[in-house]
Amino acid sequence: MFFKRVRSEGLAHISYFLESEGQAAVIDPRRDVGEYLDLVRGREARIKLVLETHRNEDYVSGALELANATGAAIYHGEQLEFGYGNPLQDGQEFGLGELTVRAMHTPGHTYESHCFLVSDARGPFMLFSGDTLFSGDVGRTDLTGPDSLRDLSEKLYDSLHHRLVPLGQEVMVLPAHGAGSACGHAIGKREITTIGLEVRDNHALQLSRMDFIMSKMSEGMEKPPYFERMEALNLHGPIILGEIPRPAPLSPRQLKEAQEGGGLVLDVREPHSYVAAHIPRSQNVWLEGIPVFGGYLIPYGRPLVIMADRLEEVEVAVRYLIRLGYEDVIGYAKGGMGPWIMNGMPISTIPARTAQEVRSRQQAGDPLLLVDLRDRREMEEGVIPGSTFMHLGKLLERSSELPADQELVLFCGSGPRGGAAASLLRNSGIGNVSMMLGGFAAWKRGGLPVGPLKNG
Amino acid sequence: MFFKRVRSEGLAHISYFLESEGQAAVIDPRRDVGEYLDLVRGREARIKLVLETHRNEDYVSGALELANATGAAIYHGEQLEFGYGNPLQDGQEFGLGELTVRAMHTPGHTYESHCFLVSDARGPFMLFSGDTLFSGDVGRTDLTGPDSLRDLSEKLYDSLHHRLVPLGQEVMVLPAHGAGSACGHAIGKREITTIGLEVRDNHALQLSRMDFIMSKMSEGMEKPPYFERMEALNLHGPIILGEIPRPAPLSPRQLKEAQEGGGLVLDVREPHSYVAAHIPRSQNVWLEGIPVFGGYLIPYGRPLVIMADRLEEVEVAVRYLIRLGYEDVIGYAKGGMGPWIMNGMPISTIPARTAQEVRSRQQAGDPLLLVDLRDRREMEEGVIPGSTFMHLGKLLERSSELPADQELVLFCGSGPRGGAAASLLRNSGIGNVSMMLGGFAAWKRGGLPVGPLKNG
């Protein structure tokens, strides 16, 4: 046998390629399926199975894409009416070379959630646990809405304790997410785990049934707005791309035309480059921020044009975007910002402030409001007294709460979210925004006053 | 944390890259260290530790190479006097970002063998088990010679049962070899494992102490002849390459000069191409056969010239060769066999026979002897009546047992060892050799007579 973890950084998503005697399965494939196809070519294998642990919420599934390229059969839980693939029954078995893969219905994260237990001649040894059991945490139970929260929390407890734990301490567990995912708030940094390690170390497995259910019901995790679109795409099946879209290189004039025709310029450069000089009305999301914040900040339905420093960054951006269901990338700025500037095209800037500068202006009584974009856990490191807290994903809907007569100084842990947020607000008509370079890290290292996070 | 298995196919060797918070360790590095260096660059990490589970026998260690490139500190068991690096003490701990790595002295495979147990804040979870514990098998105890066989077998039992098993069923085990290695005869196909899975499924862990010791003492595994050279190199430290050697492209005339100057032409093409037309006195070892059989068939101390169909194959061959301690690759045949042939240079051929042809000639009473190069386990599939069995690695030393008055038809499972063997015998002055195309597989699929393997 051969197995490989295929990671999608940012999403902290992990899919798996499993092969035995030339027969392969892919568990929870991502939409850019090139890496799986390279693996079958390199190993002279055939992908016969695509197994989905559940309808994914945080990325567009590559199941159809992979089935289209390879003829593989797709399976997913029968408890949800998918527009493609085949229904899975609890206990259903699949042969894969010398291995047997058994579907285990483990509702809880969602109703149709399944795990896949792999056995060889000596017995079961490896569990693909999807979003049911992570290293250090268990799946969230709130995605189907408040009405099913209790029911799913109860089901998750039972799936974990009556189906997974009895498999035995020795069984290896390969979950669909690692640390940093929006699908579990306490996923640990261990990269692979076992039933026994989770029984020993996972906080959620230490709780009584009632405490577990109460804890899941009060979890209160963010649900990124793009999850609904992902859920719909993964239920009905996304369009098949065939290959990664190749956007066209655009001259400044062509780029302007694309923008005038309704296109959005997505500027994936570092925020400090963006704020210094950018195309008016472009949206900044630094490259590695796309998987995490793209779904919050980039509207669906508008053609996109990428602004990047280098061509390779355009390619990475396109891969990140198609995973989130943005297929309509029509072009990229040929040569980056240089040609735009040299052609005398219009340019916007957003003030970038140092932490010291912000502090001095604060002390001088300048009317400015610091907007902290970090999440609760980051704030445990300390907060800047007098600042306002807003999650980057909630910024637009809460923008009416922001004062109109003050400069809004946006900052996060070290900078990038500040740039994206400033660009978002500016494009929504809130002109008096700036970003703080280096964010909270620069403030703290500068020895400026820091207070504790207050509850509530 | 981040961890990656870096596999060396053929050797079935697995090294590991482990990183936490920018600090990395490499366990049992191979000599071509580019992949580890790519990993540190990609992750903006620093390799601070090179940990060797034992003095390796089957490949040249990359420890010095990696230390030279990164400044990492090398550690290996203090029970052997290494010419480089630092001695390890039982229980010694190393910090690696948020992880702690503890050395556990586990003699048995060799006296200085160590395992490395990785813990995070929640406790131990991952064991790098070297050649002490594999998936499905345990290390061999015969490499230090017959005098220490019993002592090491006893020590291995104690290391396994009193040191590793007590770690707990839930701990993941990451061994230094997978299936196909010369370092354990029953290594299973599972790619990673746990203490609990091995306690449940590993044949060697089911035995009483006495049965275990008896079983290890009667194992009778092949010790490839090149192991001794590897052991010496890894004790004293191999020369540092700095980078992968780049052999020069040679014209037919230059190639001939190199050969006349004592160079050996190593022909890494497929055997059916080799036997059809090759440079006289060249040695055939098909490319993927180098890691497994190179150490048997290629003499140390002679400069090597590679004959391959494509340049990429030359590069792969060089990587395989340096892992086995062959650094003196001086050139390769530019353009492959074509220029040699077109320049009217001398050419040798070896007859290639089909299975049907061999059978007809057998029936017609032609004097020929079938020499089966497969190993014992492969022969359980069946044997060709009247054939002689010889391991490819023993062929030369046993060649006097072969009859001088018959054609020797060399074959293996599907062909490649037959070509390498025919080339070896021919170059040793045994002229009347041929190979059987498709080996035993073609014989069997052709419906020709097959008998059972007899004991003894």
Could you characterize the architecture of this molecule?
The structure is a homodimer. Chain A folds into three domains: about 240 residues, 4-Layer Sandwich (Metallo-beta-lactamase, Chain A), CATH 3.60.15.10; about 100 residues, Oxidized Rhodanese, domain 1, CATH 3.40.250.10; about 90 residues, Rhodanese-like domain (Oxidized Rhodanese, domain 1). In chain A, helix 3 crosses helix 5. Chain A contains 15 helices and 22 strands. The longest helix of chain A has 16 residues. Chain A has a six-stranded mixed beta sheet, covered by helices on one side. The first copy, chain A, has a six-stranded mixed beta sheet with strand order 7-8-9-10-11-12. In chain A, strands 13-17-16-14-15 form a five-stranded parallel beta sheet. The mean pLDDT of chain A is about 95. In chain A, helix 3 links the parallel strand 10 and strand 11. The first copy, chain A, is an alpha/beta fold and about 450 residues long. Chain A is about 30% helix and about 20% strand. At the A-B interface, strand 10, strand 12 and helix 4 of A face strand 10, strand 12 and helix 4 of B.
